[in-house]
Design brief:
Blueprint: H1 2-17, E1 18-19, H2 23-30, E2 36-38, E3 44-45, H3 50-57, E4 63-66, E5 73-75, E6 78-79, E7 84-88, E8 93-96, E9 109-112, E10 115-120, E11 125-127, H4 130-133, E12 148-151, E13 154-159, E14 162-164, E15 169-174, E16 180-186, E17 189-191, E18 196-200, E19 203-209, E20 212-214, E21 223-227, E22 236-242, E23 245-247, E24 254-257, E25 268-273, E26 276-278, E27 285-288, E28 299-304, E29 307-309, E30 316-319, E31 327-330, E32 333-335, E33 342-344
Parallel strand pairs: 2-4, 4-7, 5-8, 6-9, 7-10, 8-11, 9-12, 10-13, 11-14, 12-15, 13-16, 14-17, 15-18, 16-19, 17-20, 18-21, 19-22, 20-23, 21-24, 22-25, 23-26, 24-27, 25-28, 26-29, 27-30, 28-31, 29-32, 30-33
Antiparallel strand pairs: 1-3
Length: 345
């Protein structure tokens, strides 16, 4: 009996490790007869499932379910299509193929120039190999091997995913053909990423809720979240963070480096509500603009009901022209910081 049990177990494991293409269901998707598809219809290979998963995404299915196969979906860079919801089942892991991602900007998942995409993954994980990318014997040093990048896209939702161990950011909002617009991030965890939990270069109508950004370490700035446009014509407009946590990052929790913007830039409008910085090894919150009044960006950055605690440096650091009323703190609390509660420069 014991031999029989082992044989059955091995057979089941082999069935999970690889999955045959289901051409009948693929044809039904192509014909528009089926709108909810399973990624495994295009196959699954425990060594590399890139071709199968990319084909499933490109199929045009309105809803794509990426199953928990008992083994990770090991892939090289994946690109999302528009007008699609992708559901990663609980327990599903999308894993960067080890030894790949040699290009400095090789990203695990990219949403670029498309509209109406939802990535839903409660209990699912995107994972990379940060320790490899930081090894100069294996990889050329870079800071852009992100778990997820969103560029020039509209109406995007990212829900419930854990994004970890990247060679860059958990999530990167970069420049594309247009400014990212109408983005919703909720219940996401960005853990142990190399540069930031989240970087926002340009975005409008961005809502980040109930999201954790922790344990960022590797290359500066090493923040929980960093708002840092590269050019004066980029935007930080109608951005709201609500009920978020930065924790144990190797630098600041919430940082705004706005020197690339100037008085001719579109005014910024950011509101941080009921958010916390706990144990960050820089400041709890930091805002920097150009020191000259005539060159400093206008607009509003509000922290409302936030707490900054157990930081290595000041709880709050602000460097801007005194005449520019850009930053406001309302009902915020600073406690047990190694530096001053508030530092002005």
């Amino acid at each position: 009996m014991r031999f029989t049990f082992v044989a059955i177990t091995l057979a089941l494991t082999a069935g999970i490790a690889s999955c045959q293409v289901n051409q009948e269901m693929i044809d039904q998707v192509a014909a528009g007869e089926v709108t909810e598809a399973h990624a495994s219809w295009w196959g699954f290979n425990e060594e590399d499932s890139t071709e199968a998963l990319q084909a499933a995404i490109n199929s045009g299915a309105e809803k794509l379910i990426v199953e928990d196969m008992g083994e990770p979906w090991i892939v090289t860079p994946i690109t999302c299509a528009g007008n699609q919801e992708i559901v990663f089942e609980e327990g599903c892991e999308l894993l960067a193929k080890r030894g790949e991602f040699k290009a400095k900007n090789a990203t695990l998942v990219t949403i670029n120039g498309v509209h109406n995409v939802t990535l839903r993954g409660y209990g699912a994980t995107f994972r990379m190999w940060q320790e490899d990318y930081d090894n100069p014997d294996l990889y050329e040093k870079a800071e852009w091997r992100h778990c997820l990048q969103i560029r020039g896209s509209k109406n995007i939702e990212v829900l419930g995913l854990t994004l970890r161990d990247s060679g860059g950011d958990g999530i990167y909002f970069g420049r594309g053909g247009e400014t990212n617009d109408g983005i919703h991030i909720k219940d996401v965890v960005c853990d142990n990423n190399y540069r930031q939990g989240i970087s926002v270069i340009t975005a409008r109508n961005l809502l980040i809720e109930d999201t954790i950004m922790r344990n960022t370490s590797g290359t500066p700035p090493q923040a929980g979240i960093d708002f840092e446009p590269n050019n004066a014509d980029e935007s930080l407009v109608n951005i709201v963070m609500r009920n978020c946590l930065t924790e144990n990052n190797n630098s600041t929790g919430y940082t705004f480096y706005l020197r690339p913007l100037n008085a001719e830039s579109e005014p910024v409008s950011v509101r941080i509500e009921n958010c916390r910085s706990v144990g960050d090894l820089g400041y709890g919150a930091r805002v920097i603009t150009d020191a000259a009044l005539e060159d400093s960006v206008t607009g509003s950055i509000e922290f409302v009901g936030c707490t900054f605690e157990n930081t290595r440096l000041s709880g709050i650091y602000v460097s801007k022209p005194a005449e520019r009323g850009l930053v406001r703190f309302e009902d915020c609390e600073v406690s047990n910081t190694a530096g001053e509660a508030l530092t002005l420069s």
